[in-house]
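Translate structure to sequence.
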């Protein structure tokens, strides 16, 4: 019987070579990731603020006085920049949606902080100076309908709060 060449059976030099190749590959990958962050190719995502926002009150439409209001209460967490925070109010029963591209800034400090309230509503002209109209008079908040309020951070695109409550 013919003897096989010795180089096929002798594997003593394979392990160190594979180890070196793997270490070089890992080093190159790590260098590419670091370079991506340094040169701005890879951006870290913007963190969404965390805050506890609740619906403190919903007043349904009343033909004589107003077409309904929604009052939001900031119960705690991060202060929200009013110009970077969006509010979407939806009547889940009939699908009406009202979008505000920024929070009201009642204190004129640019911040919605813990303990503060913001009122949104469809009101007669000059009824309340601290409320914001949520539609063009095509209807209001109907009693018994479930209302959803979404508070969204415009910078990160993340949802800060989603609340539902019956009017």
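Result:
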């Amino acid at each position: 019987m013919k003897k096989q060449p010795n180089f096929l059976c002798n594997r003593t030099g394979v392990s160190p070579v594979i180890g070196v190749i793997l270490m070089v590959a890992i080093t190159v990958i790590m260098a590419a990731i670091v370079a991506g962050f340094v040169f701005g190719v890879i951006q870290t995502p913007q963190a969404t603020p965390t805050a506890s926002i609740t619906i403190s009150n919903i007043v349904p439409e009343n033909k004589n006085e107003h077409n309904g209001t929604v009052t939001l209460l900031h119960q705690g967490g991060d202060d929200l920049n009013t110009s970077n925070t969006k509010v979407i109010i939806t009547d889940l029963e009939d699908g009406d949606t009202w979008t505000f591209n920024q929070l009201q800034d009642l204190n004129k400090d640019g911040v919605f902080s813990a303990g503060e309230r913001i009122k949104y509503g469809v009101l007669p002209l000059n009824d309340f100076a601290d409320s914001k109209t949520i539609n063009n008079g095509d209807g209001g908040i109907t009693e018994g309908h479930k209302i959803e309020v979404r508070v969204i951070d415009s910078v990160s695109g993340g949802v800060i709060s989603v609340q539902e409550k019956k009017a």
